[in-house]
Each structure stands twice: as C-alpha cells, then as structure tokens.
Design a protein that fits this description.
This protein is an alpha/beta fold. It is built from 12 helices and 9 strands. The chain has a 6-stranded parallel beta sheet with strand order 3-2-1-4-5-6, sandwiched between helices. Strands 7-8-9 form a 3-stranded mixed beta sheet.
Length: 291
C-alpha cells in the first residue's frame, strides 16, 4: 500500500484526498492550521494527519504539494532533504516554469527523490477544506512537465497516479504550459473581475442598486470566477506576468472586433462571429463530456 502525502488540505488538496478515498493507498495529510487538520480527518480527506511536514515527507512514496506558489518554492529544499530515494514529489501549482526550474536545481540526486511538476485543470471559485468534494478531478486534464532529473519510470508512475482518479494526462514543456494556461485560465480570471467591476462598481448608490437588480443568471455565469481568492490570483499573475499580458491582448483583439462590427452596423458579421464562438464552446463542452 503506497503512502500518498498531501501537503495542503484546502479545496484542491482536500478534494484529492477524497478522490483517493476508495483507492488502496494510505493518505497522509499536512496543513499548518490545526483546525484544517481536524476538519480533513472529520470529512475523510486523509487517513492520518500530522503537524510536522518532515514526518509526512519521510513516510511518503508520492508527495503532492497542494499549496500556494510561494509556499511550494519555499518547501522544495525540505522535500529534497527529507524524502526517501525513489519518492516522487509533485505539485499542483498553476504555473510551472519557475517551480520546475527551482526544482531542477534542488533535486539533483540520480536515485531520487524526483520532482515532476503537475497541474490539474480543476478548481472552483471556493477555497478551504469545507469546499472540497471527491468529483473535482473527474475527467480533468492534468499537465505533467518534463523533468530534468526524473527517469521515465517515475514519469509513468505519476501519470498512472493521476489516471487512477479519472484524470487525462498530457506531458508538456513548462514554458509552453505557462503560456497556455495564461490564455485558458489566468486571463479569464482577470476578465471576470474586470467585468464585475465595470458592471457593479458605481459611485451613485441608486444606480448601483439598479445594476444589482438588473444582473441575473447571465451575470452570475460569466462572473463566477471573480469570487476566487484575490491573494491566490495575485500570486499566479505575478509569477506569470508576460504570458498573462499577452493573453489579455489577444482577448482585447477579439473584443475590439465585436465592437467594430457593432459600430459599423454589420450585424451579419456580428452573427457570424457569435456563431463561431458558440460552435467552439459547444465543441469544447463535447470534448469535456459536459454536453
């Protein structure tokens, strides 16, 4: 029975533990806050939990760092020091190049432990162990980054781990990953926040109330991720700034195209452009099995 260590028991770490509940593994958890550790045990997200990360790392066959980006970077040296030879260490951070580059400098023993970056494309706008649920990772795509010091056997084992909880894996270069997720995720959160500000932030209280009344399910659906953690998204954008700016510029081009079609009264062109967007989104829903 493998020991799976989950460092960080919020939405992502807690949901991972719940997804592993029916597997033949021993789930060992770590969190800095005692109330989080207690809650993770109470909801069966882990089989055991410890306040000392070193204890968890020494027991683990696979370590998942489900933590904020700065904390992942802070803990890499401890993981390299405490984990046994052959142990696989991965993370689920939303950026990969900075994390993987740091790990390549730290994890240098050819016998391991080995660091391989992961990023499951899963999450919600909520946070904390009480928001965790076992289906979060079902059918999620997980990017796994090339690792400088990890053998093919370790890469295959990590792929098998993610596939065991119904994820689909793809191996990717870390720099390419960061450019890709800036377009598919990071810029979206900035756009959702900007949309919420442009609609709801008004100096006149009566106008603000009118806008609150005027917003319904369309606003709720398009702005949902604006309720995500501001601190987390500050960290993500700060660590992937050039790619996020490039992605926002691409969005601005699409928005400007719509504006120009409306400005010119070209509603045939507008309908054609809108139809293309609908077709692409419907195709994506089909790919994800959501249709």
């Amino acid at each position: 029975m493998k020991n799976i260590a989950i460092a960080g028991l919020g939405l992502l770490g807690g949901s991972l533990g719940l997804a592993l509940a029916e597997k033949k593994v021993n789930r060992i958890g770590w969190a800095r806050r005692e109330e989080t550790r207690t809650a993770a045990l109470a909801v069966n997200a882990v089989d055991e939990v410890h306040p000392e990360l070193e204890v968890v790392l020494k027991k683990a066959d696979i370590v998942i760092l489900a933590l904020p980006i700065p904390v992942i970077l802070e803990l890499l040296p401890l993981c390299a020091k405490c984990c046994r030879p052959g142990t696989i260490v991965t993370d689920i951070g939303s950026i990969k190049l900075e994390i993987v580059s740091a790990a390549d400098r730290i994890f240098t023993n050819p016998d391991g432990p080995y660091f391989i970056g992961s990023h499951p494309m899963a999450g919600t706008e909520k946070s904390g162990i009480n928001a965790a649920f076992p289906q979060l990772y079902k059918n999620a795509d997980v990017f796994i980054t090339y690792a400088k010091n990890a053998p093919d056997k370790a890469m295959a084992e990590l792929e098998n781990f993610w596939q065991s909880i119904s994820c689909h894996t793809a191996i990717i270069d870390a720099a390419k990953h960061d450019r890709l997720v800036a377009e598919t995720s990071h810029a979206l959160h900035v756009v959702a926040s900007a949309l919420s500000l442009s609609i709801l932030d008004h100096a006149d209280e009566s106008e603000k109330l009118a806008r609150f009344r005027g917003c319904a399910t369309g606003f709720k659906d398009t702005s949902r991720i604006a309720s995500s953690s501001p601190q987390m998204w500050r960290e993500i954008v700060e660590h992937n700034t050039p790619a996020v700016l490039a992605a926002l510029e691409e969005f601005e081009k699409s928005l400007e195209q719509f504006k120009e079609l409306i400005r010119q009264g070209d509603f045939d062109g507008f309908e054609e452009n809108f139809s293309k967007g609908k077709l692409l989104r419907d195709s994506w829903l089909e790919y994800k099995g959501m249709k």
